[in-house]
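Customer escalation, tier 2.

The customer says the design service returned an amino acid string that "doesn't look like it belongs to this structure." They asked us to rerun it and document both sides in this ticket. The original structure tokens are below, unchanged.
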């Protein structure tokens, strides 16, 4: 045990817990507002169905070492080759769109081919204006046909915003440039695969995605306090005080950065910046149904008249997610944070029928999340830099998907927990932000 450092962690989602697990040598307390740990990675059982209530989650990573560490913690897992589709004009075409073109009609394939080809030529000749936002980037890289047929409608539905409001920082390392050969092959009818780092994924054999959380919990010896919302933070004589009573040398907050800043008395100094942060909320609807549904893992749904943007078939992730001869379906509906959540079950059932799925519903559940997707708007970088600095100067390190305010998947969270431990020394936290 490192007696010099007492660390408080706000939030017991994946970020807070993986950090507590890796900070074995320190004196650590974890505070969780809700009555159950896990954050977005909770699974809930209803009459034999297990729903991942924070939306569809799969385990994958470009970093094999990180992935193996996470899989060891989970225990028994199933390995899958991705079977994912896009609902396009009433049909299911393979995802990603640019690799699924081979499933379209000859006429449409030709339309896309000629447009993509002309776009590549113009780009190579320097005739296209360099993009400055997400929408321009789609046109610049994919051309008009692919953008207007799929990328624009789907992303507008997911982000609920004009795509010109989203900066190129969002694109960085997240949306790969399509290999030109793949698009050409797909246009002439040859199947190819895209987003290969996610082509193979893993999923817990039993218990849903929460098995990752449970595996970590079993390995933590520090106290984890549930129903302990942190409502105030202050820095006094070099110590960080939580809720006026718990004293720490250093605090890590995985709560959303805007909420963490508001915990300080002087938060109004940066109020104008907090207002510039943008994000989306999420509603997840789970359905336990009698009857068979297709052998897909998940489907992206750009259709304007269908309420959800993605539907996942969890019984195809693991047969233990529902009773025999039943299906476990979850859909995700993104919302602007100011948009009220409502009971959407009827709209969801209508959307599924429009996609050709008909079944008898046995159970259903609905779960709302305030924070789900960070929107990389044009002030993103400047605002997050100032807010991170505000916290770090007060010995609170922002951490995790919403703490750091970055689109982190589970593997990136795990990796940043390892990095955090590396940066911690007897003198304090070595920070480069
Ligand atoms: C729809 C969706 C699908 C995803 N799919 C995948 C996927 O397939 N694969 C993948 O790798 N990643 C996926 N992710 C990302 C993954 O969910 C995140 O990386 C991970 O869950 C982030 O965990 P976190 O602990 O940072 O945040 P959270 O899960 O939000 O945890 C934060 C915790 O802090 C607590 N808290 C907040 N405020 C306070 C306070 N004041 N006091 C005390 N506690 C507080 C909250 O209650 C919560 O428990 C997906 C994300 C979404 C939204």
């Amino acid at each position: 045990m490192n007696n010099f450092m007492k660390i408080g962690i706000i939030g017991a989602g994946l970020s807070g817990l993986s950090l507590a697990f890796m900070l074995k040598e320190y004196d650590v307390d974890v505070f969780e507002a809700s009555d159950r740990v896990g954050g977005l990675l909770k699974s809930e059982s209803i009459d034999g169905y297990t729903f991942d209530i924070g939306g569809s989650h799969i385990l994958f990573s470009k970093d094999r070492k990180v992935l193996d560490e996470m899989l060891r913690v989970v225990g028994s897992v199933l390995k899958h080759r991705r079977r994912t589709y896009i609902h396009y004009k009433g049909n299911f075409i393979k995802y990603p769109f640019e690799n699924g073109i081979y499933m379209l009609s000859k006429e449409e394939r030709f339309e896309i081919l000629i447009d993509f080809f002309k776009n590549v030529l113009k780009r190579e000749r320097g005739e296209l204006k360099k993009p400055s936002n997400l929408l321009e980037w789609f046109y610049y890289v994919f051309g008009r046909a692919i953008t207007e047929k799929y990328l624009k409608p789907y992303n507008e539905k997911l982000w609920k915003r004009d795509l010109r409001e989203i900066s190129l920082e969002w694109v960085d390392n997240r949306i790969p440039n399509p290999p030109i050969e793949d698009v050409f092959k797909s246009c002439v009818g040859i199947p190819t695969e895209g987003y290969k780092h996610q082509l193979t994924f893993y999923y817990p054999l039993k218990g849903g995605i929460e098995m990752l959380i449970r595996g970590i919990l079993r390995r933590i010896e520090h106290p984890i306090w549930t129903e302990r919302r942190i409502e105030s933070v202050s820095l006094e004589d070099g110590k960080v005080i939580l809720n006026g009573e718990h004293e720490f040398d250093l605090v890590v907050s995985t709560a959303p950065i805007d909420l963490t800043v508001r915990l300080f008395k002087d938060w109004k100094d940066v109020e104008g910046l907090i207002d510039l942060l943008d994000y989306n909320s999420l509603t997840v609807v789970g359905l336990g149904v009698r009857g068979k549904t297709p052998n897909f893992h998940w489907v992206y749904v750009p259709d304007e008249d269908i309420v959800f943007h993605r539907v996942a078939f969890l019984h195809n992730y693991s047969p233990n997610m529902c009773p025999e001869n039943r299906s476990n379906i979850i859909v995700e509906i993104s919302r602007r944070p100011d948009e009220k959540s409502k009971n959407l079950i009827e709209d969801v059932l209508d959307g599924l029928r429009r996609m050709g799925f008909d079944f008898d519903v046995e159970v259903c559940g609905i779960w709302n999340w305030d924070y789900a997707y960070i929107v990389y708007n044009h002030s993103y970088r400047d605002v997050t830099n100032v807010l991170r600095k505000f916290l770090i100067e007060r010995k609170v390190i922002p951490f995790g998907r919403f703490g750091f305010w970055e689109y982190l998947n589970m593997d990136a969270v795990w990796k940043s927990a390892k990095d955090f431990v590396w940066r911690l020394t007897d003198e304090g936290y070595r920070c480069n932000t």
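Tier 2 assessment: The sequence is consistent with the input. Residues 134-159 form the longest helix (26 residues). The pocket of flavin-adenine dinucleotide is lined by residues 10-16, 31-34, 39-41, 54-58, 229-230, 254-255, 259, 282, 332, 372, 400-402, 408-411, 413 (CB under 6 Å). Sent an explanation to the customer and offered a walkthrough call.
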